[in-house]
């Protein structure tokens, strides 16, 4: 392992370990923050619940009700509220009439008394009249001291009032700061009003909407602190209970029974240092392992160098042996290809000689056969009427002469390369003509070939007579195949497929064996055992179709019949002038 690779691997391992360590440290920090959040929430809830029922209980006193109905002494009500506030540990306890004016207060005899002050703009007053109870945190308008207000509506014979108790939550804040606990308490709008961090005091968690800021200013909740100019603590909205800041993480929870939220904060400095330490240790361990592996690799290379000479010699011997074997195989392949080429040349020469011989045979035999047929015809005319055997013998002789003429005609077609004259041919006409030619033979076999032709012309560039010759030859082969079998059947169909004309001749005859199928179109190869066939029919068909640009395909299975497909390119459409 090279130095660069070792350093790269160490960096990757360090990055991975740093990521895992940081994730685990943050997860542990979240668990600790959740515990802090739970304890802080319970402490705040307990402090608020301690005096939650005090406004409703104090409002049941006869002195308070008499003061609200203006039938009793206000001094008695003030002294009663002062006594209750002192015993309950409340900051202030005061009674407000339906107009929002304070008519009795526990601080009636102190500077900054609430008596005569109108608090109709406060949400705790409005909520109490509307729903029966209210709670709100705000900075005192009269005293300038912040507090948490709990209110309860007082109903008296058509007259309504509101009893309010003010809690001073600053002792909680002092406790947090003394314990160096990074916690804070925010109101329903996300404004921090208690915090162990002084720089968080009266700052929103996220930017306040203009309408929210307007409502807070109208209610004089944080009067004199410049809330509209305070920077938000979070640059992005919290993700559920999680929040992130610059160098710290936070968890946010709801205080049950209130609209306030508790925030617990944990600096990330220690988490980052621990993650960096683990990453450094992982990098050093990786480098140590890499150095150890490098030493082992160097020792292995030294041993390998000592053994390499013998291994190289063995490899050279093996390579040379393989080269010789490949050379021998190549020479064998060349000899095989040479023999195959020689055999192909010999076969080609044989075929050429056969063609020349066929032409000579045709030339030498055609005229004698014609003369013999004319002689037999003349002899037949001179037969006596009572001679019955001689005409039969002459007929047999003429049949043999005609068979020899057909043979010479096939040989002439096979040996001679005619000039191909192409014209536009509608294939339906030669198919009908070919079927008419073989009908006598078909009746003798006992089968009527089925002909399937399309309604529209199928035109190719070919010769009508030669196409008729091809189809007739294929039909005669099919008749030979179905002769003597039960329920013989022959079908001839014409169709168009992707621009080509296709002729299919299908029979239900004895079929062709798999061994003979590749050779059936070779000259002088025949599967007929009667000696009547020369094996030139399919060879001549292939030659004719090749002149027209067509092909011949034969598919067959023994005892399942044969299918011969002729494919010819369709003639181009004639342009209209």
TrEMBL record:
<keyword id="KW-0902">Two-component regulatory system</keyword>
<dbReference type="InterPro" id="IPR004358">
    <property type="entry name" value="Sig_transdc_His_kin-like_C"/>
</dbReference>
<keyword id="KW-0597">Phosphoprotein</keyword>
<dbReference type="GO" id="GO:0005886">
    <property type="term" value="C:plasma membrane"/>
</dbReference>
<dbReference type="Pfam" id="PF02743">
    <property type="entry name" value="dCache_1"/>
</dbReference>
<keyword id="KW-0418">Kinase</keyword>
<dbReference type="InterPro" id="IPR005467">
    <property type="entry name" value="His_kinase_dom"/>
</dbReference>
<dbReference type="InterPro" id="IPR017055">
    <property type="entry name" value="Sig_transdc_His_kinase_DctB"/>
</dbReference>
<keyword id="KW-0547">Nucleotide-binding</keyword>
<dbReference type="InterPro" id="IPR003594">
    <property type="entry name" value="HATPase_dom"/>
</dbReference>
<dbReference type="InterPro" id="IPR003661">
    <property type="entry name" value="HisK_dim/P_dom"/>
</dbReference>
<keyword id="KW-0067">ATP-binding</keyword>
<dbReference type="Pfam" id="PF02518">
    <property type="entry name" value="HATPase_c"/>
</dbReference>
<dbReference type="InterPro" id="IPR029151">
    <property type="entry name" value="Sensor-like_sf"/>
</dbReference>
<dbReference type="GO" id="GO:0000155">
    <property type="term" value="F:phosphorelay sensor kinase activity"/>
</dbReference>
<keyword id="KW-1003">Cell membrane</keyword>
<keyword id="KW-1133">Transmembrane helix</keyword>
<dbReference type="GO" id="GO:0005524">
    <property type="term" value="F:ATP binding"/>
</dbReference>
<keyword id="KW-0812">Transmembrane</keyword>
<dbReference type="InterPro" id="IPR036097">
    <property type="entry name" value="HisK_dim/P_sf"/>
</dbReference>
<dbReference type="InterPro" id="IPR033479">
    <property type="entry name" value="dCache_1"/>
</dbReference>
<protein>
    <recommendedName>
        <fullName>histidine kinase</fullName>
        <ecNumber>2.7.13.3</ecNumber>
    </recommendedName>
</protein>
<keyword id="KW-0808">Transferase</keyword>
<dbReference type="InterPro" id="IPR036890">
    <property type="entry name" value="HATPase_C_sf"/>
</dbReference>
<keyword id="KW-0472">Membrane</keyword>
<feature type="domain" description="Histidine kinase">
    <location>
        <begin position="360"/>
        <end position="572"/>
    </location>
</feature>
């Amino acid at each position: 392992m090279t130095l660069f690779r070792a350093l790269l691997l160490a960096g990757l391992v360090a990055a991975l370990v740093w990521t895992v360590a940081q994730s685990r440290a943050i997860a542990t920090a979240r668990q600790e923050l959740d515990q802090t959040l739970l304890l802080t929430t319970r402490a705040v809830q307990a402090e608020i619940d301690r005096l939650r029922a005090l406004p409703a209980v104090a409002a049941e006193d006869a002195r308070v009700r008499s003061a609200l109905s203006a039938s009793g002494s206000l001094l008695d009500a003030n002294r009663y509220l002062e006594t209750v506030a002192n015993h309950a540990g409340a900051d202030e306890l005061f009674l407000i009439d339906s107009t929002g004016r304070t008519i009795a207060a526990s601080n009636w005899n102190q500077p900054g008394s609430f008596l005569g002050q109108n608090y109709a703009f406060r949400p705790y007053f409005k909520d109490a009249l509307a729903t029966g109870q209210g709670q709100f945190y705000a900075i005192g308008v009269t005293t300038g001291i912040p507090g948490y207000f709990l209110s309860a509506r007082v109903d008296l014979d058509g007259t309504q009032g509101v009893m309010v108790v003010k809690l001073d939550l600053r002792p909680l804040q002092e406790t947090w700061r003394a314990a160096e606990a990074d916690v804070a308490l925010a109101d329903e709008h996300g404004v921090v009003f208690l915090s162990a961090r002084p720089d968080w005091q009266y700052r929103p968690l996220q930017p306040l909407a203009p309408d929210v800021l307007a409502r807070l200013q109208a209610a004089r909740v944080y009067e004199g602190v410049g809330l509209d100019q305070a920077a938000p603590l979070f640059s992005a909205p919290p993700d559920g209970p999680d929040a992130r800041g610059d160098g710290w993480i936070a968890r946010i929870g709801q205080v049950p029974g209130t609209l306030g939220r508790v925030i617990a904060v944990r600096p990330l400095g220690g988490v980052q240092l621990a993650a960096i330490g683990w990453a450094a240790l992982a990098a050093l361990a990786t480098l140590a392992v890499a150095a150890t592996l490098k030493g082992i690799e160097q020792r292995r290379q030294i041993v390998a160098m000592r053994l390499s000479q013998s291994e190289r010699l063995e490899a050279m011997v093996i390579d040379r042996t393989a080269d010789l074997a490949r050379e021998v195989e190549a020479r064998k392949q060349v000899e095989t290809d040479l023999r195959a080429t020689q055999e192909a040349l010999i076969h080609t020469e044989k075929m050429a000689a056969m063609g020349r011989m066929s032409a000579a045979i045709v030339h030498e035999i055609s005229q004698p056969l014609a003369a013999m047929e004319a002689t037999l015809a003349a002899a037949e005319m001179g037969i006596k009427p009572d001679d019955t055997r001689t005409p039969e013998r002459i007929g047999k002789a003429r049949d043999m002469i005609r068979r020899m003429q057909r043979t010479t005609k096939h040989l002439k077609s096979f040996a001679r390369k005619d000039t191909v004259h192409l014209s536009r041919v509608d294939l339906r006409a030669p198919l009908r003509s070919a079927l008419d030619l073989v009908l006598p033979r078909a009746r003798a076999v006992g089968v009527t070939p089925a002909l399937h032709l399309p309604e529209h012309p199928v035109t190719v560039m070919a010769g009508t007579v030669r196409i008729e010759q091809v189809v007739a030859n294929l039909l005669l082969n099919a008749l030979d195949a179905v002769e003597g079998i039960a329920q013989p059947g022959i079908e001839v169909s014409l169709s168009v497929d992707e621009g080509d004309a296709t002729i299919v001749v299908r029979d239900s005859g004895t079929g062709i064996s798999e061994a003979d199928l590749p050779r059936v179109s070779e000259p002088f190869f025949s599967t007929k055992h009667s000696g009547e066939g020369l094996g030139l029919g399919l060879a001549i068909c292939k030659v004719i179709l090749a002149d027209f640009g067509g092909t011949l395909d034969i598919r067959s299975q023994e005892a399942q019949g044969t299918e011969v497909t002729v494919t010819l390119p369709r003639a181009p459409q004639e342009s209209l002038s």
